[in-house]
Amino acid sequence: MSCKSFLTLITVLLCANAVFGVNIISRAQWGGRSATSKSTLATGLSYAVIHHTAGVYCSTQAACSLQMRNMQNYHMDSLGWADIGYNFLIGGDGQVYEGRGWNTLGAHATNWNSKSVGISFMGNYNTNVPTAAQIAAAKALLADAVSRGQIKSGYILYGHRQVGSTECPGDNLYAEIKKWANWRA
User: Fold this and answer.
1) In this structure, what DSSP letter does residue 124 have?
2) How remote is the C-alpha of 173 from its chain's centroid?
3) Helix, strand, coil fractions of the chain, as percent rounded to 5
């Protein structure tokens, strides 16, 4: 393959990803269990809530997949929830991981689950700092949520601490999301 052909192929793949949405590591790919029950999440939501797991940071797909399984086990087996709490998670590897996914009610922010999509960054962002790849992945996911109609184009972005009594999503991640266009005080 010539250099020009290779560059053309890369350009087509990048454009296709931009047009058709962000690449999401599916539940099957990370070894997720089936939910014990599901409730439908409405479309046209007005809010997205950003979290951190406050747990172990991961930087490879294998390590992040393990963290996803550990978190799902904790949420289901210890907390008694139907599934992992978040709709999506962002790994330190810069990839998006499917939690409950699109159109499924999450368990991430009391009194806000039915009116928001919950996105959590894996790690503790009081000590970890979000990478450029993580930020790009989260922004691409939010853009995808708008294009799918899951959230409105004028949605409001909150950090979990704004809707609940918590330090989540950690000081470093909170400082970052305050710079994003849809964040509101």
Assistant:
1) -
2) 13
3) 40, 20, 45
